[in-house]
Design the sequence.
């Protein structure tokens, strides 16, 4: 795995990233004024069925989205994190991307340990907007800006940024963010201790994408939490998944 | 004020204007298109009311209104899905809603009674069971058993027992269970649940809605 300093990236104007590559990579790309595309996010409108020849249908929706984006965007290079801050599935997806794309696909292993803080995770503001700000923050080596005031949590969302943000709509503005999303804001995606952290006094939804390895941790933590709800969702948030969250938040007093 | 629980196969209504009024049931396929109620629940409910409460909340509130204990598990078996709430110390402990693997269980049980011209009221839980993953897939077990000489009523009863055991496991295998929904009136289903069962009838969600009408 080459160091970023060993690479000549001056020609790369359009760069895709998967997961959170090390800060050194992001900083260099920022300095080169490259446009970074977060391939974990929904960037193209093409049908997800297009990735079926490459990936099983029963596979993480985020990584299927990565492949879909990579197939349709015009990129000069991709940096895909396959270290402890992402997952084994990303490692295999990197092999697929290297096999189907003509542009270089660089594997990284992010073990950054310097925390940048998590003000957005603990702020009082619309959860979807804060989630968007955190995911947008992976494109920059600077701390994720937050102009919102901190608050005492009435609810908790633990997990990764979902593929379908509709799942976030029922949560109150006083929801604190935990799990890997908090690690994202802190720019330490491999920080397992921070990822496991949750507040037992706060009714918390433990979310993972269906077919993701993090479902095991989400279920484990939810079972141990005095007011935890485990939930996994695939591509789209179903009526019942959303209703489950609404009911959980109301019945646990998070909305009162 | 009219409250409505709009289920997949049946809709239940309660008029709060009539003192001591009894709930009524209408088959969903017979609902007039221009029907409008004041407050609704059930997966069809949004179409027919200005105000809507989701089914899990209505179920939980109905349980709070009808069950005096602080610790209990309440399971609702509908035509299309199964859902439960578990309370401990008077507070929500666990909940679940299965619309996928629990798909069409109640609907399939009713379909089988009509197709095979059975009378569930005259039947009992069998000794053995089928391993049933969902209503649709489970039917193939019935066909196979009948081909192999098992009486139709016995095969259907095994299917129902498989569904009952699935539902029991889904809500955490409790020692005691409060049951809501149309299957409260099905003795094969009730007897097949391997625990103490208290049927609460099919109007529990309406009871839950009353809280939101006040």
Sequence:
């Amino acid at each position: 795995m080459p160091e970023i300093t060993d690479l000549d990236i001056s020609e790369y104007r359009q760069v895709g990233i998967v997961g959170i590559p090390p800060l050194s990579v992001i900083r260099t790309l920022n300095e080169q004024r490259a446009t970074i595309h977060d391939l974990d996010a929904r960037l193209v409108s093409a049908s997800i069925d297009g990735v079926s020849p490459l990936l099983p249908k029963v596979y993480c929706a985020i990584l299927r989205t990565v492949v879909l984006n990579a197939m349709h965007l015009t990129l000069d290079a991709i940096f895909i994190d396959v270290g402890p801050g992402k997952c084994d599935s990303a490692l295999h997806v990197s092999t697929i991307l290297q096999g189907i794309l003509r542009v270089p696909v660089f594997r990284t292993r992010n073990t950054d340990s310097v925390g940048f803080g998590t003000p957005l995770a603990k702020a009082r503001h619309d959860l979807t907007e804060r989630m968007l700000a955190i995911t947008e923050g992976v494109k920059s080596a600077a701390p994720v800006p937050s102009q919102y005031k901190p608050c005492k949590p009435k609810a908790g969302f633990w997990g990764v940024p979902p593929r379908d943000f509709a799942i976030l709509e029922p949560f109150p503005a006083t929801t604190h963010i935990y799990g890997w999303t908090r690690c994202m804001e802190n720019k330490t995606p491999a920080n397992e201790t921070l990822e496991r952290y949750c507040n037992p006094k706060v009714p918390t939804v433990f979310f993972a994408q269906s077919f993701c390895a993090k479902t095991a941790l989400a279920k484990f933590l939810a079972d141990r939490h005095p007011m935890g709800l485990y939930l996994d969702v695939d591509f789209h948030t179903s009526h019942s998944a959303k209703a489950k969250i609404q009911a959980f938040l109301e019945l646990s007093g998070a909305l009162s | 004020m009219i409250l409505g629980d709009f289920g997949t196969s049946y809709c239940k209504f309660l008029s709060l204007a009539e003192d001591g009024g009894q709930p009524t049931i209408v088959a969903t396929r017979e609902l007039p298109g221009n029907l409008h109620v004041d407050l609704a629940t059930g997966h069809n409910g949004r179409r027919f009311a200005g105000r809507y409460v989701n089914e899990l909340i209505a179920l939980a509130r109905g349980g709070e209104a009808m069950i005096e204990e602080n610790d209990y598990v309440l399971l609702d078996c509908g035509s299309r899905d199964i859902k439960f709430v578990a309370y401990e110390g008077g507070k929500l402990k666990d909940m679940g809603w299965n619309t996928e693997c629990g798909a069409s269980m109640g609907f399939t049980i009713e379909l089988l009674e009509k197709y095979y011209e059975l009378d569930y009221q005259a039947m009992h839980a069998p000794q053995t069971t089928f391993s049933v993953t969902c209503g649709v897939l489970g039917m193939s077990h019935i066909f196979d058993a009948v081909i192999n000489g098992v009486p139709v009523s016995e095969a259907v009863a095994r299917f129902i027992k498989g569904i009952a055991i699935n539902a029991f496991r889904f809500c955490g295998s409790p020692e005691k269970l409060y049951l809501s929904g149309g299957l409260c009136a099905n003795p094969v289903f009730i007897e097949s649940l391997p625990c103490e069962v208290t049927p609460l009838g099919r109007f529990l969600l309406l009871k839950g809605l009353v809280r939101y009408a006040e």
User: Anything to note?
Assistant: The CA atoms of residues 33 and 161 of chain B lie 37 Å apart. The mean pLDDT of chain B is 90.
